[in-house]
Amino acid sequence: MARDTANAAGVPPWPYPVRYDSETEAEFDVLIIGGGIAGCHAAINAARAGARVAVLDKGAVIRSGSGGAGVDHWHGAVGNPCCDITPEEFSRVVDTVPFGVTTEYGNGITCYIMAKESYETLLDIEGMGARVRDTNDEFAGAGFRDDDTKLMFAYDYTGRHILRVFGWEFKPALHRELKKLGVTIFDRVMATSLLSEGGAQGARVVGATAVNVRTGEFYSFRAKATVLATAQPLRLWVFSTELQGFAAIHDDPNCAGDGCAMAWHAGGELTLMEKSAPHPGGFRYVAYGSGNSHNTWYPCSIVDADGKEVPWVDRDGGVLETVAERNRPAPGQKYFLYGGRHVREYRAPELVPDLPERLARGEFRLPLYADLPSMPPDERRAIFGLMLAQEGKCRIPVYDVYAQAGFDPEKDLLQAPVMAPDAYGPKPWWAGQPARQWRESGFLVDGGGVVFDWDLRTTLEGCYAAGVQLAGGADHSASACTGRYAGRKAAEYARTARAPAVARAQVDSEKARVYAPVNRTDGVGWKELQAGLCRVMQDYCGEYRDEKTLQLGLEWLDGIRRSELARAHARNPHELMRTLECAVRLTVGETMMHASLARRASSEGLCFKRLDYPEVDPPEWDRLVTVRRRGDAVAARDLPWDYWRRAPYSPQYADNYAAHSGREIGSEG
Amino acid sequence: MGDAYLVNNPLTPNQAIRFDAELCTSCNSCVDVCRCDVLAPSPGPGETPLLVYPDECWFCGCCVAHCPSPGAIRMEHPLCQSVGWKRKETGEHFRIGMQDPPPPNEQPPVGGWGSPSRGR
After folding, report:
1. Which of A81, A394, A454, A544 falls 20 to 30 Å from A565 in CA-CA distance?
2. Cβ(A169)–Cβ(A133) under 8 Å?
3. Across chain A, what does the average pLDDT equal?
4. Closest chain B residue to the Cα of A395, Cα to Cα
5. Stronger pLDDT, A338 or A359, i.e. the higher one
6. B117 lies within 8 A of chain A by CB
7. Is the CB of A69 less than 8 angstroms away from the CB of B54?
8. Nearest to A350 by CA among A290, A256, A427, A254
9. Is the omega angle on the peptide bond into residue A299 within 30 degrees of 0, that is, cis?
10. Is the pLDDT score of A247 beyond 50?
């Protein structure tokens, strides 16, 4: 396949050698697909367990992944010396309501793993050279700092289970550790399929195929164990490059759902794929970059256009008179959780929840502003100087850019987006107001992913998963902790696993599929494909769904696969990556429609409305619906929503952890 | 008078980032860290990397932060996503990109800019 890489006059040639012909074969004990937070921790821990490990990433591991650009606060650190919450106590939150309550905690398995290993993980990262404490004593004496350990707490200064950290430094530290441990890093390499023993659907996973997104080189990897760590599918509904950048949302634009699609084709089981929620996509304001009191901005005071302060209230609606009370549990409450609106036991202080009604009747006037100047100096500096400088996509885009533009947190009120009154509910305001058909299924709404067990194994032998790849989502800390755990389990499995035997026919057929778009001389571009499949999702898998429209949607996606995708054309390896992502999203969209068909009831927790089954959360549907391929058909099955504490598992978290965590209990720490 | 020339219809109104050719050392650090691979390496000494896919930028700012030559890359938020602020004492309104902006606020973040990160 000799190719002319020179172009029309004035346009430089493709800057990398083009090697569509070349195939590299390699074998590892553990192959990690996705080098974000979960993937890096998995690789490090598999390597420490003695495995030969490789990591693949479409980007560059030094900064790739949803958490690669930083993190400002670290959840579930109940093991820190200033916190007296037990892992068992902490994990009860996910047992209160079906389908997971917030993105921070995931399900019972991920939440307990986080509670057991979160602080230990942080100490591990500290040992790699990143900072997790106020070692410069910038906050000596502050209410959110323990002066002995120099740990800094976020949100709940009494419960002290969330730590403020210098997360901007984490990813380069993980990258250095990978190199130190001799992990083989494949930057700019996109996995395209899982390889199965004998090429048979549902069989043990024995490696993966991949393609280099700069050179086009093909790879076939044999591995005794494989870890999927590609986060959740994003941008299924909204695509808007021509307006303001296709990726101005929070989540990594490389998250097409590669792991879900690969697991699906290999016969693996997915769940929660029917879950989605409204999301403004690329129309969102700069993440964390407009006036707010949420997340990174907690507990900032909010004032209206006339300078009138919006009150904060406790979990029962009692008005809080001081700023300090916003970081304290209510009388009789041991600790509170931040992120999502919890049941009363865990509910955090918040702005008056009826703010939409108060705005509508004129009690407050738009626009609203974050009143940093009125905040106590330590809190102001913690919000703007610490949290915003460490959180992903904030250090340069917000801290640096705003400061250079003259924004001064001691003097200036940062404006919140101007929206309809009903948009000022308990959700963060920097997102702006989405249209009803613009939805998101990934990280922000703890959406679908692979079914997994207490070994963090998928339903396929030899195939583990970590981070947001796990159905039900989780946050940066949970991704790190499940990465460690999955790395240990994959290495443990690899120690006794048979040599991986790859079926050549499966590799050859995948190779033909992967290169088809570059072997055409003309055809449909990836942006056309992406925009088209988003429109199908908006129309047929939007806020309201029913049997007829979902079936029609499946016909549309299948039609695009057979017609436009079959004529797709990519002019270089970069466009090839984007085109292959469109194929991933087509598959993921289909799994979402299959899952939506299988759930014949509406659900508030899943933000799921069936026009033909309008009853909301009937008790018999308090269960997970799973989907998987069986031949060319689709098989659906039920799982208890809290399967992690049902047979064959123990109702006690500690028993399950002791039996599955891959470490000797009593020796951790 | 300005020039007039024919170009392919640009895909987006936003540049995402801009290079300063005087300050850029053509080291390609930005190309190496970009998760979305929106940049192509500098074609040669004295030339900046090429912003090939500005509409695929995630606005994470890592290219700016990893640049060893402060000021060689500047992030530009899309105009349609610009936010504003109000000076509490005077009631004046400001925004990013305005004419005659207030002077920059030079306070470094908690813990300093560090390395790799832009130094000031």
Report:
1. A544
2. no
3. 92
4. B61
5. A359
6. yes
7. no
8. A427
9. yes
10. no
Count of other CB atoms within 10 angstroms of residue A633: 7
Q: Are the beta carbons of A393 and B61 separated by less than 8 Å?
A: yes
Question: What distances in angstroms separate CA B64 from CA A68, A70, A189, B57, one per listed residue?
Answer: 15, 14, 24, 13
* Nearest one of A417, A381, A428 to A103, comparing CA atoms: A428
pTM over 0.90: yes
- Which one of A244, A413, A574 has the shortest CB-CB distance to B81? A244
| Residue B115 DSSP symbol | S
A669 has pLDDT over 60: no
Please state the rounded mean pLDDT for residues A324-341.
Answer: 89
- The angle at the Cα of B76, spanning B88 to B41, to the nearest 5 degrees, equals 155
Q: Identify from A176, A408, A528, A577 which residue to disrupt to test chain B contact, counting B C-beta atoms within 10 A and taking the largest count.
A: A408
Q: Do A393 and B32 touch (CB under 8 A)?
A: no
User: Band of the pLDDT at A249, cuts 50, 70, 90?
Assistant: low
Q: In the block, which residue shows the tokens 């000596």?
A: A140
Q: Which domains does chain B have, with CATH numbers?
A: 17-95 (3.30.70.20)
Chain B closest-CA separation from residue A371 CA (Å): 8
The ranges of chain B with pLDDT < 70 are 1, 7-13, 115-120
Share of residues in chain B with pLDDT > 90 (%): 59
* Cβ within 8 Å, pair B111-A138: yes
∠ CA(B31), CA(B33), CA(B37), 5° rounding?
55
B119 close contact with A: CB closer than 8 A? no
Could you give phi then psi for residue A208, rounded to 5 degrees? -155, 160
What single-letter amino acid sits at A423?
A
Task: Give, as one character, the DSSP assignment of residue A55.
Answer: E
| Interface size, chain A vs chain B, as Cβ–Cβ contacts under 8 Å | 196
Its sign, for the CA torsion A391, A396, A398, A402, is positive
Per the listing, tokens 């699906």 go with: A264
Q: Of B78, B94, B116, which is closest to A406 when you measure between CB atoms?
A: B94
CB proximity B100 to A under 8 Å: no
How many Å lie between the alpha carbon of B84 and the closest alpha carbon of chain A? 6
Instruction: Give the CA diameter of chain A.
Output: 74
Q: How confident is the model at residue A88 (pLDDT cuts 50, 70, 90)?
A: very high
Q: How far apart are CA A124 and CA A131, in angstroms?
A: 11
What is d(CA A449, CA A487) in angstroms, rounded to the nearest whole number? 18
Q: Which domains does chain A have, with CATH numbers?
A: 285-423 (no CATH), 504-629 (1.20.58.100)
What pLDDT is stored for residue A438 in this prediction? 80
Question: pLDDT category, A432, cuts 50, 70, 90?
Answer: confident
Residue A213 has pLDDT above 90, yes or no: yes
Q: Within 10 A of B19 (CB to CB), how many other CB atoms are there?
A: 21
CA distance readout (Å), A86 to A69, A103, A367, A651, B111: 31, 20, 43, 16, 31
Q: With CB atoms and an 8 Å threshold, state whether A15 touches B65.
A: no
Interchain pair A414, B85: CB under 8 A: yes
What pLDDT sits at residue B114? 78
Rg (CA), chain B: 17
Question: Are the CB atoms for A399 and A348 separated by under 8 Å?
Answer: no
**Which residues of chain B are within 8 Å of residue A65 when distances are taken between CB atoms?**
35
Average pLDDT over residues A38-50: 98
